[in-house]
Known about the structure:
Layout: E1 2-3, H1 6-28, H2 38-59, E2 62-65, E3 69-73, E4 77-82, E5 86-91, E6 95-100, E7 106-110, H3 118-133, H4 147-162, H5 171-183, E8 187-190, H6 192-214
Antiparallel strand pairs: 1-2, 2-3, 3-4, 4-8, 5-6, 6-7
Helix pairs in contact: 1-2, 2-6
Protein name: PH domain-containing protein
Keywords: Membrane, Transmembrane, Transmembrane helix
InterPro entries: CFP-6_PH
Amino acid sequence: MTIRSTGGRVAAYAWLVFAAFNLVDVLFGVTGDAKLSANTFGLVAVLLLGCGVAYAVGLRPAIIGDDDGIALRNPLRDVRVPWAAVRGIEGGHVLTVTFTGADGTETVSRAWVHQTSPRAQAKADARARREQTGGQAHGADLRGRTPTRYAAQQLEEMRDRLRPKTRSGVPDKAAAAEAEAGDAHGTVTWSIPALASLVVPAVALIVIVVVSSVS
């Protein structure tokens, strides 16, 4: 199960195409003469910085659920949580995962993608109430079925199906599951590629501006 922002990816790819065309034009003079100057290198740095933003904000973010656990890929950080370490998954305005951290304390991480505005959440609540009042949906969830909440429900179902069973009719399996649950913890790490895609062109742009101002 992988959830990404369709709008974010479309916008990111649109920028990458725009940037690629302009880079070729600036460096090889497709629509005019190519001039290698400080302004040219500055424009290249700006285009590359925009590509870094497109990658970090548009292409990278994702919510991934697999047999091993949940992964939240946010613009600059990665969160990886095995099912045994997950304590709760909520789908409010953002998808939130509560899990056991590396030091054993409770940690909360929020997903960048699939955010629901308070207005959309309120509309979903009102729609669910109307459907229940009119008898259109028996036992409907009064909190509505926004994309964020639906994603949380899917992940909860995966968690119930895939997490180790600490209560089992086989004592050895139950003991092994309890040991695994006790040792399991989630990790939060910085994404080196995402940081590099932003820092390198930003530093290059600063250097170009400084050199141009003193020369």
